Amino acid sequence: MIFLAITSVGLAEALVLAGNTHPVWCSASAITESEFASRRLPNLTRFAYTLAGGSTSSRIADALATMEEHHPNERIWVETPTAA
To answer: Rounded to whole angstroms, what are the CA distances from 28 to 1, 31, 73, 81?
Structure first.
């Protein structure tokens, strides 16, 4: 199982659920580049672009394709933030 976090809240939840066992990928808007570098979590991968905000369906599709390339035949759980 792989997690895709879109927001910082979703990332925090995904990291807890994933523990040290499952990979977590996240949007650039979920964690800053400097935070990502300082945390050094071996199971965390950060996209260089955001997956949040306006018309993101094609970016999320691209992200999912990339994740599948790296983790073939794995189930991917995607955070779906609720509208505020």
So the answer is: 21, 6, 25, 15
